[in-house]
Design brief:
homodimer, alpha/beta, Rossmann fold, 2 domains, five-stranded mixed sheet, five-stranded parallel sheet, globular
Chain lengths: ~425, ~425
């Protein structure tokens, strides 16, 4: 049940000896990761998290989630970046596209749009609401603004009872949110100090809202734990996450500077966004990095497809597909066959979709786009957990191969500094 | 009420004389567009469409929409590419983020996912459903599959009445869908023969589902008509759509080969996707074209922000903002000020959001990213219409400036050929 890289379409672009040339570098980087001796090693808590997460904490999360599910129509998750994208990604992938029933999980504090917040406020009118505020410091501007406004709404709606409907996920000891939680008696969960935002989806950051939304979080963790052991193999040729990382860097070094993450499964849209943060924020520094972009086919074959086929040749494409046919829909016979589809009548949609993928890979490869293919056996919680960990491990390796720290994000501070100056925040005046 | 380009951040990257050097080329390309003498001129029907669309057709669209609204819970729009992205874009921009009430408009036929279609079928169970099938030929694989399956569902649910719940938008005379409509007596609307998919949002393709969804389509057209007249000005320095096109090409020629469309308004997400098709499919050919990507801030400041600030320098950024503060939400005072936000108490969210944008533009410009800024006075249907036309006009100009036909998409055929071969479509066997 592991994620495999299919080299069918990349063989003509990258020779085996190019990979072999990286073996030592990969082995050294593997050692850096596992011995925690590389740049940013203090943020390697995610590495053995799936196997070491405590049962007591998991049970407490499940209890909190059950409580929310029992008395809440809408859970508002307040968070930005890694406190938002992982939950959204898994929700998109595993829950029905048109709503799962049960407690609805929506997001706030990931933008500063007054329009969005007003629409959210009108959406929750008359409903039973709970908040899950996720922020290490509690002072990140976007979620802090949303929390201030929504906390006021909660107090107006529930009075003293509001505190029983607010769950805080934050640092164990430090920060404004920890203080607020301790003072008001909010239920609280810990963001491990050694796990950065974009590597945090498998901690309480993602697990609590996902459990509320109806995701089987134990299976998610099981899949991640399997990935943790499988991908601890130091040998490049036997470790698919490292192979993915190595191919990326080989292509990057040849001038393929944009990676297009592609899937024929629309439920992958959220994973694509999460993946962009993971790789963009980990690698996009010191003037380096593959630019991460994404498409959902076949929608985008009728949109970005033309560019992929014939545009500027600086792209490579990574296609994620799910092997097992988990659906029953077949194409019905039609006497008149006006649309000419009767040749498909004995085929399932899955078969047609997989064929469309192969056809696209062939076309784009012929058009000069190197294609990496990642095969996931099945679309379920366990495999989702595996896939998330696969990308995190690959990202750490890829960043070390390109010579940058996978775990910092110094460039994110610049806009904040400017914003504080322009808004006249005390201590930041020009 | 026109869309203006703010040159504040681009001045340090592009000198006025670089623009001036393009004036003659722009004038010649303007003539090509308006005299219909350039490549693909047979697809210039969109150019004067907003002013020439007939009142009778508009009324008929509104009547059909009213009928759907009166007896339907869910309208399923079946279409791909331009038959999907424009409607989704305007819906996202103008309707409430958490649902508008009234008839729900959802999409099918824009992917081949069995999972998606099964979730859709379970979503519509027990509801009153109508279909709007949009396809020029009626044989494009993705929408044809969805229509075949959903038509069967409709016949099972409504028997002979199903025909009164199916609306077809297709070619005036030709194609499988026209034949099916004539035979079954479906209400039908025409996709003008001289307007390609990605330029079709203001025709019946977009207007019918948008009217059902609750968009004021007359205001949308009014805004587009204002753009049509305003942007008919041949002078580069007085035509903001041409200025946008010229800046893009100047930056492209300097190696800025990725354009990141950015907005601080989450409702812009759909416009970003529509814009990617418009520019990607129009310009991405013959090994040329700026690669179109997009972000929604400040979500993506905590994701792609690091890359934008410090990653490989091949990017420029186009920020779309809405000037007027149309919301009331202010940040409440908090005695304890644990989050340190009291310095924002007299500011509206809009003001903070606009400041975040300026702070980001400053930061990214300093990081070596040229910033184009497009200012839209207000977020409403009229301005949406203006903005759509603005991009279409800019795209035609930009493609001519880069020497390609803005209206064809030869590369989209390749995956289809392969797919037909692999699926054994009669006439395409290997």
């Amino acid at each position: 049940m592991t994620v495999k890289i299919n080299t069918k379409f990349i063989q003509e672009f990258v020779e085996t000896n190019e990979l072999a040339a990286l073996e030592d570098f990969v082995a050294a980087s593997h050692k850096k990761i596992h011995d925690k001796t590389g740049a940013g090693a203090e943020y390697l808590g995610w590495l053995d998290w799936p196997s070491k997460m405590e049962e007591a904490e998991l049970s407490r999360l499940e209890e909190a989630a059950e409580k929310v599910k029992s008395d809440t129509d809408v859970l508002i998750v307040i968070g930005i970046g890694g406190s938002y994208l992982g939950t959204k990604a898994v929700q998109d992938l595993l829950l029905p596209a048109f709503g799962a029933g049960g407690t609805e999980v929506i997001f706030a504090g990931h933008n500063i749009s007054g329009r969005y917040l007003e629409e959210l406020l009108s959406h929750i009118e008359g409903k039973k609401v709970a908040l899950n505020v996720i922020s290490k410091s509690g002072t990140t501007t976007e979620p802090a603004i949303a929390f201030r406004i929504l906390r006021k709404w909660m107090v107006d709606a529930y009075g003293e009872e509001a505190a029983n409907r607010i769950i805080v996920t934050t640092d164990e000891k430090e920060g404004a949110l920890r203080k607020a939680a301790d003072k008001a008696g909010y239920t609280s969960f810990v963001i491990p100090g050694d796990i950065g935002g974009r590597y945090s989806v498998l901690t309480s950051v993602g697990l609590l809202p996902l459990a509320v939304a109806g995701v089987d979080i134990r299976s998610l963790l099981e899949g991640a734990a399997l990935a943790e052991s499988t991908l601890a193999n130091p040998a490049l040729m036997e470790n698919d996450a490292y192979l993915y990382a190595a191919y990326r860097q080989i292509l990057n070094s040849r001038g393929y500077s944009v990676e297009v993450m592609a899937s024929f499964e629309p439920a992958m849209a959220g994973i694509n966004e999460w993946w962009k943060q993971l790789f963009g924020e980990s690698e996009g520094k010191q003037g380096k990095g593959v630019f991460p972009a994404s498409v959902i086919y076949s929608t985008d074959l009728h949109s970005m497809g033309q560019y992929l086929q014939d545009g500027r040749r600086m792209l490579f494409e990574t296609m994620v597909s799910f092997t097992e046919d988990q659906n029953q829909t077949e194409i019905p016979f039609d006497e008149e066959d006006g649309d000419g589809l009767n040749y498909l009548v004995e085929k399932s949609l899955h078969e047609v979709n997989q064929t469309a993928m192969e056809a696209t890979a062939l076309a784009h490869a012929e058009g000069g786009v190197p294609i990496l293919s990642l095969e996931v056996p099945k679309l379920d919680a366990q495999h989702a957990g595996y896939l998330l960990y696969f990308f995190m491990k690959a990202c750490a390796m890829s960043a070390y191969l390109s010579g940058v720290n996978p775990f910092d994000q110094p460039g994110v501070e610049q806009y904040k500094q400017n914003m504080f100056e322009l808004l006249g925040k005390p201590g930041y005046e020009k």
